Amino acid sequence: MTTWSCMNLQDSASPIMEQLIFFHDHTMMIITMILAMVLYFMASTIINELVDRYMLEGQTMELMWTIVPAVILLFITTPSLRLLYLMDEIHNPIMTIKTIGHQWYWSYEYSDFVNVEFDSYMTPYEGDNKSMFRLLETDNHVTLPMHSFIRIIVTAADVLHSWTIPSLGIKADATPGRLNQSSFMINRPGLLYGQCSEICGANHSFMPIVIESVSTENFIEWIKKLSE
Amino acid sequence: MASRLLFSSLRQVQKLQKACIHGRSRIGNREVVGFGFNGQYSYQDRIDFPMPAIRFKESTPDIVALREKEKGDWRKLTLEEKKALYRASFCMTFTEMNAPTGEWKSIIGIACVLISIGIWVFILERLFVYKELPTSFSEESKKAQLKRMIDLRVNPIEGISSKFDYEKGEWK
User: Fold this and answer.
1) B164: distance to nearest CA of chain A, Å?
2) Which chain A residue has the Cα nearest residue B146?
């Protein structure tokens, strides 16, 4: 989850998000270098007192400032396309969960082995429980096993919503009448938070998502208990 | 008629290489001394092209007499005469052209005024417009939430939990 004054991406909980963070850092370095270069050019043009009244063109310069940015863009597109296709690889997920967005809560269905369905509403903030994360906690968590590929199918019952967990690098729009598929694998145990990311009415800011990542044994215990 | 004007002005350019685009009647009695920086009958003090097309002041009998004297030995000209000759042909000297204007002071001043207006707007908004922060922003709440974040190992790679030494139970 995001901590205070956090200007950067959350730490990754999945291998794809790790790669996304690396790509982000790589591209950020390139654009910082470009920024430094452009600032230097601007500063030296301002201070410059030389004038060429008959300057019309500079063919070599124009060639260089077309080719060099194209090469820089190649350095950006190569990892980008690699990551794009990596994100779409099929991994034989061991289970599929369905999530349906409603106004204003999420409902989840685990229908692979047992038929489990539940709703997940935001817990309203009370002043007494001081360690509660305001606007992020839900009554039911989406419990999932670690180190297993999971497929998630996202849809909505009424209006557009968007299901996202930043630390997994997932965002999938929940469109009524459409099934959007995404897949992920969680690297570490813990609680992963997300919030609805498509405006959906009055309580759009109050329908969070909590994934509880547990060991496979704990997951089996949990789902057995729920199905009873 | 337009083509006749065009051809006559083109002929002038070829013959004399002096300023020749329209405006001749606006300069009064001023002598045309060259092409200028764009071929127009204008005077401009420019450090990158210090040869304007026309003299600065109109020709008066005094100046015409001085110009005759200028054709002779320059050592016979007094300093005052040299200065008068310069000021007749030019408005400013190079030193005057390059002199700092102090404009930066007004720019910085006005920028500071506008920034302070922005800061005042922000202060007045904080005082009169915004509601109270929720109780989860109190120090006690934040401490409890921070402890829970550390217990949950939130952001353990480079974030907050990576700065906590779990074996010793204290910050690194």
Assistant:
1) 14
2) A131
